Model the fold of this input.
Amino acid sequence: MITEDTKNILVADDSMFFRKRLGDILTDAGHLVEYARDGTQAIEMLKAKPKGLDLMTLDLDLPDVTGFQILQWMKKEGIIGQPPVIVISSIFQKNGVRERLARLGAAYFLTKDFSPQELILHSNRILFSEKAAHGIHQRERVPVTIPVDFGSNDG
Done:
């Protein structure tokens, strides 16, 4: 478990594989995860828990109500950013998608080829922004690479 400061996260994706993948990563990081398999269910959960969700991951290509439509609904209802939304989608080649998502209030965009570390990094930046802003537990990070030779039979 990465954090002891558990947050409530909604994962909205029509693919069972990606719901499970996202849920496993976020649960392993110490969070509680709920799932929506389509846009209608995601909106119902947002309505049912207006202040009970700390973050939502959202697929753009949902079968009934698209991720874009959910963001538009959130903006119209005045709840954009409550919870913050990380869009995770395979739609990444179309011009203007990122700009459109930013205008609709999405906090971040990841393509579905993300690494677990990317998801945790961006989730934590959003979920714990107050800690980062106040310098709590902030330390300089230095990238390190360690060469390994798997071909050697020494020793």
